[in-house]
Amino acid sequence: MCYVFPTVGAIVTSTIWNKTKSVKTWWLSLLFWGGAIFGVIDHLWNGELFLISKDWLKDISLGVVITGVILAAWGIILSLVKKNLALGAYLVSIERK
User: Fold this and answer.
1) How many CA atoms lie within 13 A of 74 on its CB side?
2) Which terminus of the chain, N or C, has fewer Cβ atoms within 10 Å?
3) Backbone Cα Rg of the chain
4) Where do the H-state alpha helices sit in 21-84?
5) 21 — alpha (psi -120 to 50), left (phi > 0) or beta?
6) In angstroms, rounded to a whole number, what is the distance separating the alpha carbons of residues 6 and 41?
7) Half-sphere exposure of 3 (CA within 13 A, CB side)
8) Could you count the other beta carbons within 10 Å of the beta carbon of residue 41?
């Protein structure tokens, strides 16, 4: 169940990205998809065939933490872009293509 929140975030940001084509949203979408895929693989790796563990409340809490970390990482990426003008210019050039 830890994959639920990142998956919802991935779907929402992918939908927003399809409308806006914003590079910032694209990066957030990729981070969310990575978190969602990681959660599914983790459940399968631990033998939870139906992707639900015995302690689902702990899993949901972990999903909230994973989503928070993804948002924090995205915020760090955005702050680095603001501080490094060359990186910001590169991302803008990608967005215009």
Assistant:
1) 21
2) C
3) 16
4) 23-45, 56-83
5) left
6) 13
7) 16
8) 11
